[in-house]
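tool_call: predict_structure(chain=1)
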Amino acid sequence: SERNIAMVFQFPSIYPSLNVYENIALAVRREVKSRDEERRRVRWAAELLRIEEHLNKKYGQIDLGILQRVSIAKAIVRRAAVYIFDEPLSNLDARLRESLRSELKRIHKEVGGTFIYVTHDQAEAMALADKIGVLRDGRLQQVGTPEEIYYRPSNKFVAYFIGSPTINFMKSRLRIAEGRLYVEVGESYVPLDPALAAPALERLKSLQSLEIALRPQDIWVSKTPQPYSVECKVSAIESLGTSLILDLRCGQVSFKALADIDLGVSEGDTVYALLNPGRIHVVDPVTEEIIF
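tool_result:
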């Protein structure tokens, strides 16, 4: 309290012997100057979390989703400068997680202050954050907006950790022809975006080998050949309802592509994958740094 920091834990932090009102009030009882102020603060937090009808209930009378809302209300009522959320939604089912996730965005807009939100769920991080810090073994790998983390990851770990379906990594080689840079994908070569590749040309030339990384969303699949497309075999198909995840094989290289549900392909079919040059990342296989 001396640092003006409030915290929400993974499990609801509720006193079973007290009702919801008393649990929330306890968090500010030493700060307020009167019972009227206490009531105003508690009512404000309860309305914000939409738990007014539960204020007179106790622990055993409400479900886990409401209990976690009470925990959040106990933090919000403090009107702190910083709020720390330690995986607050991890013990809720998918429906409750989705509901509370959107609620937290609204609450942050109304309450203000800094929300530090700890999570292993990258979808939560992408949906909630203005800025994301990615940690690995206690070391900060990258800090940036969700868009920066997703489209311009700093290294292989960040690229792998963020995004679903998971990003593809493929062993490759560099080729220069007629002043243009190409990377090997299976038995074919696809062009790199000159605006991205040209500034890194000298470093690319110095690499004995390299990896390329590309998200399944950035691979377009056709049933007919296209310029610079890669001929592949469909080895597996996973339906997501509105789209398909295709496991594609081209020579010794395998990768996933996200395709339209109406593409009309079966396992064993030949298809043609067109890789978006502007979304191809080149990875240094030694340092695992993403060059661009």
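agent: The domain at 168-283 is CATH 2.40.50.140 (OB fold (Dihydrolipoamide Acetyltransferase, E2P)). Proceeding to next step.
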